[in-house]
């Protein structure tokens, strides 16, 4: 009953709360779509589509709790957001490996990308919550890990494997690369807006939850739709 009352008291201009609610609903709908479509694919692509559903399902659960946290506390749910990311971002890295297996991708690539993503997220969390006085340092380490991931998928071994695979795999890989380069760029921007460092003279501080929520929905659902389309197109060939 308390939660229902909180929802009724949400102000019409509470755009943060609104995007938390919409994000939760969108992630749940995407999860249902991916899970219910599994049977139309053969084993080769079923795992990739399943992972897409897991990504959005995990995000939907966390967005439900983040929505409640915002309603009750009125503060950015940083802890829940990072727990969500530390589970879903490595799964998004797993998607790269799964689609590149057709070109001979090895588990070394998988663990490299997962390791980089964990470093990126853990150091970002430390800088944003634990060691706020040295946020710029921790943010720099997190940013470095991010750029190594970008290099790996655009110019490194992942890129070479995608070119070797060609066709639908290459096309899907390129779209996913753009998601990482452009879509994920909102996160370091949000980090700088929420912490104190040399960058505050160029990037003002402020609440970026709305941008985070929109970016999360676009990135996670978009990732899944790219994988879904790849599976559909591959079954036609």
Description:
With 237 residues, the protein is mostly helical. The protein is built from ten helices and no strands. Helix 2 packs antiparallel against helix 3 (43-73), helix 3 runs antiparallel to helix 4 and helix 8 (167-182) packs antiparallel against helix 10 (209-236). The chain starts with a helix and ends with a helix.
> What's the main sheet like?
none
Number of strands: 0
The helix content, as a percent range, equals: over 70%
What structural class is derived from the secondary structure elements?
mainly alpha
User: For the CA atoms, what is the radius of gyration?
Assistant: 19 Å
Mean pLDDT: 91
Distance between the amino and carboxyl termini: 53 Å
Q: Please state roughly what percent of the residues sit in beta strands, choosing from under 5%, 5-15%, 15-25%, 25-35%, 35-45% or over 45%.
A: under 5%
List keywords for this structure.
single chain, 237 residues, mainly alpha, 10 helices, 80% helix, disordered N terminus
Summed up, what is this model?
This protein is mainly alpha-helical. It is built from 10 helices and no strands.
Give me the secondary-structure topology.
Elements: H1 2-8, H2 15-36, H3 43-73, H4 78-100, H5 107-130, H6 135-154, H7 157-165, H8 167-182, H9 186-194, H10 209-236
